[in-house]
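Support request from a user on the community tier.

User writes: "When I paste my structure tokens into the form, the page sometimes reloads and wipes my input. The last time it worked, I copied everything first. Here is what I submitted, just in case something in the input itself triggers the reload:"
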């Protein structure tokens, strides 16, 4: 695979092959509000990686739409100039990761292997493969690689042990996987005030000409229809509103 790591910032590892992404989505680090502790923790860890210092694997877990994936991708905006690259790996390709190691080991760049929205079902054999990936198997893990995982599950697997024939063994399996992440960051639903603050920030960034009270009213209606306050809901609202205002300015709407 003749991949030019100087020409591309992000890649997709799919079906055992590394594919460059020409137009990666790189959220702005400063646009991710109300997750300051999580931002700083991941920023420092990624800085260690690009500075050739010991860095941890990280598990970002918690509620949907709270910025987990956006935070991981925002690391490219901070550190791509220092040689950071991101490789998104799909769960089905965990079994092929040894093919990726050899390629990444020979480069000067630093890599985040990004598993987005990862979760396992009971007795999934990929759990053991991921454990080997995190702790090292017979093959030594490349020193220029860390693993960042996002998940809605705190422990990546169902935690209901009542249905298990051997619940203690199951508990050990769950804990032994999560303990391999040196950094574990929780993300939680925003309050109404935090949600509205994010809405206002996006509206200001986009330069939307709309009254504050009207914007708040629309934002709360939007959140109510989606049953919760989240950064994703705020972003989707502003995207919808931006299109609406543009159509209105062109005379397509009253």
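"...and here is what came back when it finally went through:"
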């Amino acid at each position: 695979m003749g991949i030019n790591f100087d020409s591309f910032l992000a890649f997709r590892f799919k079906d055992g092959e590394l594919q460059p992404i020409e137009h990666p989505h790189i959220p702005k680090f400063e646009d991710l509000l109300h997750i300051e502790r999580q931002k700083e923790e991941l920023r420092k860890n990624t800085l260690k990686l690009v500075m050739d210092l010991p860095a941890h694997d990280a598990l970002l877990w918690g509620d949907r739409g709270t910025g987990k994936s956006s935070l991981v991708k925002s690391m490219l905006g901070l550190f791509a100039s220092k040689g950071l690259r991101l490789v998104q790996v799909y769960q089905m390709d965990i079994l092929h990761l040894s093919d990726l190691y050899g390629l990444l080991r020979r480069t000067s760049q630093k890599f985040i292997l990004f598993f987005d929205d990862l979760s396992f079902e009971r007795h999934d054999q990929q759990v053991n493969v991921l454990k080997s990936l995190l702790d090292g198997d017979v093959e030594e893990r490349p020193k220029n690689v860390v693993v960042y995982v996002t998940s809605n599950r705190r422990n990546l697997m169902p935690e209901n042990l009542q249905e298990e024939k051997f619940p203690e063994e199951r508990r050990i399996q769950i804990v032994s996987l999560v303990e391999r992440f040196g950094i574990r960051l929780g993300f939680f639903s925003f309050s109404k005030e935090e949600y509205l603050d994010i809405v206002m920030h996006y509206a200001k960034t986009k330069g939307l000409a709309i009254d504050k009270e009207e914007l708040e009213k629309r934002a709360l209606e939007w959140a109510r229809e989606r049953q919760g306050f989240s950064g994703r809901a705020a972003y989707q609202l502003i995207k919808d509103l931006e299109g609406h205002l543009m159509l209105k300015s062109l005379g397509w709407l009253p």
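Agent notes: The reload is a front-end session timeout and is unrelated to the input. The chain has a mean pLDDT of 89. The beta strands are 10-14, 17-21, 58-62, 84-89, 110-115, 145-151, 183-187. Escalated to web team.
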